[in-house]
User: Fold these one by one.
Assistant:
Number 1:
Amino acid sequence: MKICIIGYGKMGKMVEKIAISKGHSINQIIDSSSHEIEGNADVAIIFSTPDSALPNIMKCFEKKLPVICGTTGWLKDIEKIKKYCETNNNTFLFSPNFSLGVNLFFKINNSVSKIMRSHDEFNTKICEVHHTTKIDSPSGTALKIKKDIDSVLKKDTSIESKRIGSNNGTHEVIYESFSDFIKISHTAKNRESFALGSVVCAEWIISQNGFFQMDDFLNDFL
C-alpha cells in the first residue's frame, strides 16, 4: 500500500514508522496546505492542523484519493464532507481517536450511560488532559464522549479541559452523587496506538467506498 502522509508532526512521523514496519511505502509527505497532492498513492492519512484539514481533504477528493483523517477541531464541516462523498463517490473515514483502547472505552461508557438513565441522583462530568501543544480544546475525543452521553441521558454534560506537559491524552467520565463517586478513565501511554489504528483503517478503507466512522471499521474488522 502506498501512503500519502499529510501533516508531518509527531503523529505523522509515527504513522510513517508504523506503516513502514508493516511493509507499506510512503509515497508523499505533505507538511503544508500549499503543497499539491500528487494523487498516485493508494490512501492519504491526515494528522494536520485544524485549519488545513478541510482544504487537504478536498485536494485528496479531487484526486479520488481515499482519506483517513485523525485531525480534530474542524468538525463544523463534517456534514459537508459526508454529502460530498455521497455526491462525488469519494471515500473518507474520520475518527477523533484511532486507539483501539479508546474505542473500547467509548463502548464501555455507552453501556454505563444507559445504566445511568434510571439514576437521576448522579451528576455527570467529563475531564480531559492533553499536552500543552494540542491546539483544540476540548479534545475531539472528549466531544465524542459528550455527544454519546448526551444522546442517552438527554443532558448537557460539562467538559473540563487541561493542557499539561507532554500528556498523550487522559479522558475521564465521572458520575457523582451525594454518596458515591464513579470514575471511568483511559490514559494513552504513547502515540503508537493512534498511528497503528490509522494505518490499519487505511488498509481496510482502500477496498471501501463512501463516508465512514470508526464504528464502521470496528463492526467489520472485529
Note: The first strand starts at residue 2 and ends at 6.
Number 2:
Amino acid sequence: MDEPIKTLPLVFEEPKGPRGPKPKPPRHLADLTPAERKERLEELGLPGFRAKQLSTHYFSRLVDDPAEMTDLPAEQRDELVAGLLPTLMTPLRTLEADRGTTRKTLWKLFDGALVESVLMRYPGRTTMCVSSQAGCGMACPFCATGQGGLERNMSTAEIVEQVVAGARSLARDEVPGGPGRVSNVVFMGMGEPMANYNAVMGAVRRLTDTSPDGLGMSARGITVSTVGLVPRMRQLADEGIPVTLALSLHAPDDELRNELVPINTRFSVAETVEAAWDYARKTKRRVSIEYAMMRGINDQAWRADLLADVLHSYGDWGWVHVNLIPLNPTPGSKWTASDPRDEKEFVRRLEAKGVPTTVRDTRGREIDGACGQLAAVES
C-alpha cells in the first residue's frame, strides 16, 4: 500500500478549466519559508530584510492594515505589502451562534470559489475548523460538500489565512470572552485534507513555526482528518510532526462503508484502520475515529460491537478514541441524526467493550453548521 499518490483514481486530481490548469492564488508569505520570502522581495527589486518585518506584522501582530505597518518606509509600503501580503480571500457572510462564541464565515477566494471556516470558543480553548479544498471529490453522499464535487485545491496561504483571521478576531476582542488566541486547529472543514497533502502540510508548518516565521502553535493542538487515503496516512506518519490523525470511518464493515465513503472501494476498512494504527504506533499519538451517527443507517447496536472488534484487533485501547458525531442533516436529505436512544445504546456497547468514546458537542446547527451548507446556499 505504499504506491505513489499518482496511481489513485482521477477523483483526486484537481479539475482543469476549459483552457488548461486554473489560475493559481497569488503568492503570499504564508506559502513561503523565511528564506523564500526574502528571495521573493529581492526578485521584485525590494529589500529582502523587510520580509521579517512583514512576517512579524502578519503572524505576531496580526495586522491587516498597511497603515499600521509604520516601521516600513511609506514610499515602499504598498509595494512590500503587494509583494508578500496580497489579499487572498474576502468575507461574504459571518453567522453567529452560541451567544457569539461560534462564528461561521463564508469566504470568497480570488477566483470566486467559496469556502467556509468556523471559530468555536470554549472555556479554556478556541478551535478553528478550516477548509483545505473548495468543494470535495470524495463524494460521500451524506456530506453537503461532497455532493458539490471538487472545484480546486486551496493554497497553503489560503488555509493559513482562515486561522489568522480567527486569531485577529480573538485578539481584537470581537468574540465574547475577552481577548484570546487560537489554541486548536482541525482540518475538518470543506475538502479532503489528504487529497491536498502538500498544501496542508505547508499550512501545518506555518502554523507551528515559531513567531514571527509562523503562528507558533503546538502541533499537538492540530488535527488532520481523512476519509482514508492510506498512502497519505502512511506518509503523514513519517513527517515527524505530532499532529493528531482523525479517521472518518463512519462504518465498521466494507459493505456499508463502500456506500457511505466511496474511497473504501479502493482502501478497505481493514487497510484503513491498519494505517491508522500504524500512525499511532509510529508517532505515539492517539488516533481519533470519527463516526457520524445516521438514523437507521450505521447506528445499529451490532455495528457498535463490530466497530469495537475491528479496533481491538490492532491492540489495546491506548491507541484509539471513538468520537461519535450527531449528524447535522442538510435540507431535503434522507440522511438524518440518530435517535438519542440508539446513540446512547451505541455508546454503551462501545464502552462495555472498553473503547474510549465521546459524543461530539454539536455547535452551529442554526447557522448551517455542517461543512458546505452555507456555500451551497450562497452559490
Note: The longest helix spans residues 156-171.
Number 3:
Amino acid sequence: MDGLVYRGVKASLELAKLDRPKIRDGEVLMTMQAAALNHRDVWIAKGLYPNLREGIVLGSDGVGTADGGVYIINPNQEWGLQEAYSGPGYTILGMPNHGTFATYLAVPRHRIVEKPSHISTEEAAALPLAGLTAYRALFKKCQLSANEKVLITGIGGGVALFACQFALAKGAQVWVTSGSAQKIDQAKLLGASGGAIYKETDWDRDLKKNIGGFDVIIDGAAGPGFAKLISLARPGARIALYGGTAGEIKQVSPQKIFWKQLQILGSTMGSDKDFSEMVAFVSEYKIRPVIDATFTLSSWQSAFERMDRSEQFGKIVLTLD
C-alpha cells in the first residue's frame, strides 16, 4: 500500500510503499477514500511538533469503507474519563500512531462513525479534527445560544469556517476577521453578517462602533491582537482560545477582564461524546464542509505547500482510492 511517512526533520516526508496493516481483535481494516490536511501535518513535516517518531504515516482526518459501509474516523485516542479535559495519555491520530494518509488503516471499531448521507466522501474527510474543535469551543465551552453575536478570527481556516457554519446553524449572528477582503466576502456568502481586515490598524474600533461588541469570540491566533478581542467582548462574554499561531498574549488589561466578568476558555479537540454530538449536529442541520482544493496522494507536496502559504478557504483534501 502507499503511505505518506514522516522520515525525520532533515528527510521530512516520503510517499512510500508499506505493508498492509494487520488487524487485531476489535479492529477493522479501513480502505481509505479521502483524508484532509491540518496545520498540524505541516508543523510535523517541519519538525515543529512534540514527540515526533520517524516512520509514522501522517494524517488525522479521514473517511473510508469497511464492512460495506462508509465511515468517518474519530481522530481522538485515549481522551480519558473526564469530559472537562483530556487525560495524560491523550494523542491524536497521525502522530505518534499511524494516520490517514495511506490507502489502508487499521482502526478500532469503536473509533468510526457512519458518514452523514448528505455529504460527499471528500466533505466527510474534512470534518473530524476541525469540526470537533469548533463544536467544543462553541457549544461546550462558550455555551452559544441563538441570536448571540459571534466574532470568529482568521476565517478561511478549517476550525474558523466550521465555527462560522455551526454558529449560523444555531441562529447566531456572525462576524469574521481575516487578512484578506476576499475571504471576508466568501464568509458573507456563507451567511456571515460582515467582517474586518485585521491588518488594518483600527479594525477593532470599526467593529466596536458598528456592532457594539460580541457575546462569543472564537480565536485561534492569540498574540498581540488578543487585547483587541478583550475590548470587543461585551460584559459577560465568553472567549474560546483554541490555538496560538500569532504567539504569546501580551498587553492585556486585567481590569477589562474582571470588570466585564469575561470568561477566557482554553479549548482543543474534544471528547468522544463531543465527536458523536458534532457529527449528529452536522447531520441535523445538513451542514456541508467547505472544500478549498482536492489533490491526489501522489500530489501531496502541492497540497502541503498550499496550506503552508495559508491560501486556503476551507479544507485541503487528499483523495486516496
Note: The chain has two domains: 2-127+289-319, 132-266.
Number 4:
Amino acid sequence: MPPSVSMAERIIIVCRDARELNQKAAEQFIAAANRATKSTGRFTVALSGGSTPMGLYALLASADYNRRIPWNQVHLFWGDERCVPPEHIDSNYRMAHESLISRVSIPAANVHRMRGEIEPGVAAAEYERMLKEFFFLSEGAPPCFDLILLGLGEDGHTASMFPGSAALDEKKCLVAAPYIEKFKAHRLTLTLPVLNHGADVVFLVAGQSKAAVVKEILGKKTDSPVLPAARVMPLDGHLTWLITRDAATALVEP
C-alpha cells in the first residue's frame, strides 16, 4: 500500500501505526501553528475528543515537541463536547486537559472550552457568541480556524454529528446541541459551515474497526455524500486524512 494518495479534494496519508499517525499529526500541528502565528500573531485550533487524539496531545506536550510550539499564541477550542461537567470522565475537555493543557505553558485565557455542565441549548448559544466575539464575525459568517482536528466513528459520525441528525442540515448556527438517540443525551458540536471553513482540517483515524467506514467514505467518489464525515469538504482549505494501516486495509482490493 502506498504511503500517501492524492485525491482531488483531499490527501490521504496511510501510517504504519498510531505512533506514526501521532508523529505526522504533531508535525502538521506545529507547521500550522508557525504559519498562523507568523501571519496573524495567533494560532486557533479546534480539538477533537475521543480516544484517538489522546496520543497526539501527549506527544505535543512532550519535551521535543512542546518547545517547538509558541503556546502563548495558541488558542484552543473544541469541535464537540459531551454534556457533562469538565471533571467528568467522559468530558472531552478533561481528556485534553490531562494529556496536554496541564503539561504546557498555555495561558488559561487561551483555553476556550464548551460548558457541557449547563443546559445544552444555552451552552451552544454561549459558545456561538464567544466564537463571534473572538473572531470578530459579521452576521452569518463562520469562523476560520487555522486547524480543525476531527475523529471518525464506526457509524461515520464526526465531531458530534451523527447519521440522521438535524445538525447536519444546520446552515446558520455555528454550534448545535443535537439529541443523540443512541446515547439518550445531548451533545454540543460545531456545525458543518464551521468545519468546512477551516484552513486546515485533519482527520485522525486508527484501528481495524474503522476499515469499513473508511472504505465507505474514501473508497468511492460521490457528489452526494451521506455519512457526516464525508460531508466535511473545506471550501478553500486543505483536507487531510491520517489513517493507520489497519484502518485503511479495505481501501485497496487484495
Note: Helices lie at 18-40, 54-61, 63-66, 92-99, 120-134, 192-195, 211-218.
